[in-house]
Amino acid sequence: MLTLPEAARTPCRLPVLPDNPTQADLDAAYLARGEAVAVCDGRRDLAVQSFDAQTRALQPPPRRSIWRFITGG
Amino acid sequence: MIALAKRLPWRLIGYVLAAVLALAALNHFAGYVPFTPQWQAKRAEAKADRLEAQVSTLEREATGNAEIATATETFHTREIIIREGTAEAIAQARNAPDADAPLTDERASRLRSADFRLCSEFAGLCADADAAGSRPDAVPPAGPAG
Predict the structure, then answer these.
(1) Per the confidence metrics, is the pTM higher than 0.80?
(2) Is A71 on the interface with B (CB under 8 A)?
């Protein structure tokens, strides 16, 4: 059974301005939102890669070849 | 050629072929008779096939888990780099000369209003924008961010 990483399940969070914001708060919010987008995209990518790995793992094994069937190997 | 065909022991060849066919049929049907060697061989073969399929499944799962582990490690490495860079940039912003200058009420209100629309459209995306101090994702008001 494949396990989905916890990071891929973690929802994205948007940083917001505090009450009575200052210029520094605005800068920080801008930077924190950039960080949130980048991390969130990383989580999305992780979820996609996990899904792809799971899809590959669930594919049925290759069928027995006709030669093996004839020879009984 | 015709003379050679006439010299072949066709009757004997027929008997041999018939015997081979009879043995093959007997061998085949013996597989359905319990406790015969053929039956046991058939069961062993089926068991080997099942085990082979299980091993194949486990191998594919192990490969998939290894791929996921690699992807997770890559993500965490990138996350650390991103967070460190952001923390450094925020610290610089906090130390800027105009860092403590408050935003105008109109500007702050406009930004808060936009946040409110965004946060009410996507439930759970933001912390409660109205409850001061209870927002884990609110940008800390002062001091270098960690």
Answers:
(1) no
(2) no
